[in-house]
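Review form for a predicted model. The reviewer records the input and the model, then writes brief findings.
Reviewer: anonymous (R2)
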Amino acid sequence: SRVRAILTQVHGLRLRLAREAMTQARSRKHKTVRVNFRAVCSETKWGDTLVVVGSSIGGWSPSSGLRMVTDGSLYPEWNCAAAIELSVRDGSRGTPGGYATEYKLVILRADGSEEWEPLDGNRRIDVGGSAESVRVASTWGRAAGPHDTTVLGPGGAGAGAASDGESPAGVTPT
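Model under review:
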């Protein structure tokens, strides 16, 4: 009976350690980073909304994407901010040790239709492993490099990154 109790305790300990190992492995595969998006888009009309969609941003569904905001003093600049879950970079870009996700801009027209950004590929947020927040600037229909965004500010190490410290004006937290 004492041996059975010890075996039960060992089994419970093994299960707990296995769960902890799985949690740690998942946390190394994903990282949540605060992203401030800034996009310049003069293709919108009164009543339209610009949204960000992607692999970890609304599951590529414009109705579930991040809604950007603008006003008369900022237009054609649109802004939003959110915590985004990035995945471990696949290493194919030659910059290991970081995290990435893909996205695109979509206009939700006032009449209910959608207009996807006219790029052949997707945009990419590509940050170093220590990044906690980044600022991402895009211009509708024009990609920086091979469909990458320009990452400005902290954590900007990586492909297509710039480090000029420029800050997007009027970023609206969500």
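Findings: The first strand starts at residue 30 and ends at 40.
Further findings: The chain has a mean pLDDT of 76.
Recommendation: see findings above.
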